[in-house]
């Protein structure tokens, strides 16, 4: 479904992503693990068209999307939930969700997506008229994911959905990620520093270090890899 071939991404003279290749099959959840500054967000921004790789290729469903604009990439079904839960604080939950569906003109489809989001996140249903800025951190993360789902994505890019959340809420969010994936045939790239959780919900994982791919494999094998245990699972 997605195939990235040896991309390089620069910020001015600084290379943040160095010859990274990865792939994602239809319906898969793939985790990207790495420390602060490893290049995880940069990689997601390159996929979603917010940053242009200097070289390499990004193929999505057989089409090279490397030179498409970010809005064209959204239209193809690639939607990112950015780091730090960027909801519109002065709009209600309902208005935030409506904005997620701005590309969808068909009323029936919109209603179906709203049902999907509210059944996945019942807590949002109770708070449709509440200002998004007054939601708790976990609820804002649910809203950010719900808004992305309102655009009927094929590929969801999640940037650190557990950031700033308690272990209990993190567990809840990851449970919801698993549910969304199972029920909706959406493929997911999940960026996380919480390697433990990320390896639980993903089939495969890639480890980024200083902009380079350092390791890749099946998530269940990664959990037992000495290097992963030492650097990311912290025992
Ligand atoms: N706009 C920018 N201009 C210059 N350098 C940048 C810019 N954005 C990111 N960088 C640098 O690129 C590198 C990778 O950053 P990136 O945000 O992708 O890391 P990350 O893996 O997402 O880290 P974190 O886990 O802290 O979110 C870092 O060294 C960062 O300082
Ligand atoms: Mg980041």
Give me some keywords for this one.
4-stranded antiparallel sheet; 2 domains; binds magnesium ion; 6-stranded mixed sheet; binds adenosine-5'-triphosphate; 235 residues
Provide a descriptive summary of the structure in words.
The chain has 235 residues and is α/β, with parallel strands linked by helices. It folds into two domains: 1-77 and 156-161 and 186-235, Rossmann fold (3-Layer(aba) Sandwich), CATH 3.40.50; 80-152, no CATH class. 38% of the residues lie in helices and 26% in strands. The protein contains ten helices and ten strands. It has helices at 40-47, 70-75, 93-100, 107-120, 122-125, 137-149, 167-184, 195-201, 219-222, 226-233, and strands at 2-11, 14-24, 29-33, 55-60, 63-64, 78-81, 155-159, 187-192, 204-209, 212-218. A six-stranded mixed sheet has the order 6-7-8-3-9-10, sandwiched between helices. The chain has a four-stranded antiparallel sheet with strand order 2-1-4-5, with helices on one face. The radius of gyration is 17 Å and the shape is globular. The relative contact order is 0.19. Adenosine-5'-triphosphate binds at residues 11, 14, 16, 34, 36-42, 83, 193.
């Amino acid at each position: 479904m997605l195939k990235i071939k040896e991309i390089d991404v620069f910020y001015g003279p600084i290379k943040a992503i160095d010859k990274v290749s990865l792939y994602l099959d239809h319906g898969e959840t793939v985790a990207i693990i790495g420390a602060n500054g490893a290049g995880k967000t940069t990689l997601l921004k390159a996929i979603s068209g917010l940053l242009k790789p200097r070289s390499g290729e990004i193929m999505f469903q057989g089409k090279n999307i490397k030179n498409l604009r970010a809005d064209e990439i959204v239209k193809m079904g690639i939607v990112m939930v950015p780091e730090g839960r960027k909801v519109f604080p002065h709009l209600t939950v309902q208005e935030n969700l409506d904005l997620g569906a701005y590309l969808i003109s068909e009323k029936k489809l919109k209603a179906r997506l709203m049902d999907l989001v509210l059944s996945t996140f019942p807590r949002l249903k109770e708070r449709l008229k509440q200002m998004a800025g007054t939601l708790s951190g976990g609820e804002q993360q649910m809203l950010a994911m719900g808004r992305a789902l309102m655009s009927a994505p094929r590929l969801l890019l999640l940037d650190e959905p557990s950031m700033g959340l308690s272990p209990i809420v993190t567990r809840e969010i990851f449970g919801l990620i698993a549910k969304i994936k199972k029920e909706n045939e959406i493929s997911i790239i999940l960026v996380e520093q919480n390697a433990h959780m990320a390896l639980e919900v993903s089939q495969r994982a890639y480890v980024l270090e200083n902009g380079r791919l350092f390791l890749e494999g099946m998530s269940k094998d990664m959990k037992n890899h000495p290097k992963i245990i030492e650097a990311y699972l912290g025992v």
